[in-house]
Amino acid sequence: MNGLLVLNAGMFATIQDRGRYGYTHLGICHSGAMDEYAYLCCQMLLNNHNHNAIELMTGLKLQATAQIQIAITGADLSFKINGISQPIWQTHQIQIGDILSFEKRISGQRAYLAVKDSFVLEKKYKSYATTLKENIGTKLQRGDFLVCIPSISYHIYRVVSKIQKHQSPLILRVLLSYQESYFSKKMKEKFFNSLYEITLQSDRMGYRLQGQAITPSTSDIISEGIAFGSIQIPKDGQPIVLLKERQTIGGYPKIGTVLPIDCYKLAQADIGSKIKFEVIEITEAQKKLLTFNRYFKAYFI
Amino acid sequence: MTLHISSVDTLIIYFEKSISPNILDQVQRAYRLLRPIEGVIDITPSYNSLLIQYDIMLYDYQSIQNIVRKTLVTDSKDTTIVSYSNKLIKIPTQYNTTVGIDLERVAKINNLSIEEVIELHTQTVYRVYAIGFMVGFAYLATVPQQIITPRIATPRTKVSKGSVAIAEHQTAIYPQDSAGGWNIIGHTDFNNFKSFKVGDSIQFVSLS
């Protein structure tokens, strides 16, 4: 068979795509690539249309049983082919027997590995995305085999100008929304003037932050749908930014929502690093997202 | 009915701020009307709200609001009765302080004995008002006034599957291990969570 054999699954590696939309009424969450920017760059490099990728953290080791064109983007996890360091944010031509490894985290959290014409897998609810708590999708295990269609390309494609730099503090642009009125002017000022720190309790569901406590005037609301990037304020006042694997419904007040393109940066930020929030207005926010969407439009399915 | 921006590409519709079968009907009727609109990516219905994600390459926040309003104004003349399956599901539940780690707290906050909490929780026939949070998680209401309890201050990173819990006026069963901030008062081995549908009736039965 042609494809990639998993020699070591590492810390955490799953199959993802842009997410599973249209099923939240059943409680099925969106899931999908945490850093959609890196994910879409990966597909753009390969000109893939019906696509998926491995979202991986350190430790993943694969062996190819065919000639495959691949692309790697996202976090720098010291990507090597047969033990030799290779650049990322570009395509590579893999030969039969080649070993791909990601041994050490240099910067960022999640890398993406896609193959030309994508891994041959079955969709569930119209998506390849993996959601562990729903038992949907594929979490890689040692010995798994990912079937690919062999491909050869003598061109190397690179993403040059768009590589994201990691800032400190990371500025997250926030649209005040939802229960904004439950937060007094003083609380909002406190929220936007404070530095928050990313805690260890951060995962694909959400990033829990630590810093100045924020108190809403009501601590419980009638449970309602939760948008991507919602900043939920539980009773202890410590914000949680809800990301791809967030619950579909929840009842903590939300001060606003982080712009999706900033959530992708947050998904690559280190534990312990600093966050600062900044207000953005709806017109400006839509403009920013439109620019992103138009850029990647051809790769949206 | 009011419309609010909830994120760069979602808006939320709020109906009257309370929990009642009548509002549930309004939500479900609106859900069915809005679902087929082109460019509507996802809709999350809940007790008294609908979260709508739309394609911003087709609509901006103003044009989507106009379309939603127009669709729902037509609805006010719509008298179609929303039909539900209306089945009654009984949930055998263990109530004690070992599995119900917050049972004592719920009793204390409400000045009740543990036995009274159990009695109040089991005497009510609840209705499924929404499915969400995760697959098979049914939001049940309304909890008797005497045992309404706010969520815990810091959500737990792990609540085990089968936990029976209360948050404010609602109760639910965790269908999977997950993070959660509800007060856990008991445990059930019931496992057919996918059978829950909005509108169903649910009653807890004490095993102790």
Distance between the termini of chain B: 44 Å
If you compute it from the alpha carbons, what radius of gyration of chain A comes out, rounded to the nearest whole angstrom?
20 Å
CATH superfamily of the largest domain in chain B: Cyclophilin-like
- How many strand units of chain B? 13
Tally of contiguous helical segments of chain A = 4
- CATH-assigned fold name of the largest domain in chain B: Cyclophilin
User: How is the main sheet of chain A built?
Assistant: 7 strands, mixed, barrel
| Structural class designation of chain B | alpha+beta
Amino-to-carboxy terminus distance of chain A = 27 Å
Number of helices of chain B: 4
Q: Could you walk me through the main structural features you see in this protein, from its secondary elements to its overall organization?
A:
The complex is a heterodimer of chains A (301) and B (208). With 301 residues, chain A is of the alpha+beta class. Chain A is 14% helix and 31% strand. Chain A has helices at 36-46, 185-193, 260-266, 282-296, and strands at 3-8, 13-16, 53-56, 61-64, 68-76, 79-81, 84-85, 90-94, 99-102, 107-115, 145-147, 170-176, 196-202, 206-210, 224-225, 230-232, 240-242, 249-250, 254-258, 274-279. In chain A, the strands form four sheets. Chain A has a seven-stranded mixed β-barrel with strand order 12-19-16-17-14-13-20. Chain A has a six-stranded antiparallel β-sheet with strand order 7-6-9-4-1-11, with no helix packed on it. The radius of gyration of chain A is 20 Å and the shape is elongated. With 208 residues, chain B is an alpha+beta fold. Chain B has two domains: 2-76, Gyrase A, domain 2 (2-Layer Sandwich); 88-206, Cyclophilin-like (Cyclophilin, Beta Barrel). In chain B, 23% of the residues lie in helices and 32% in strands. Chain B is elongated. At the A-B interface, β15, β18 and α4 of A face β1, β3 and β4 of B.
Write a compact overview of the structure shown.
The complex is a heterodimer of chains A (301) and B (208). Chain A has 301 residues and is α+β, with helices and mostly antiparallel strands. Chain A has helices at residues 36-46, 185-193, 260-266, 282-296, and strands at 3-8, 13-16, 53-56, 61-64, 68-76, 79-81, 84-85, 90-94, 99-102, 107-115, 145-147, 170-176, 196-202, 206-210, 224-225, 230-232, 240-242, 249-250, 254-258, 274-279.
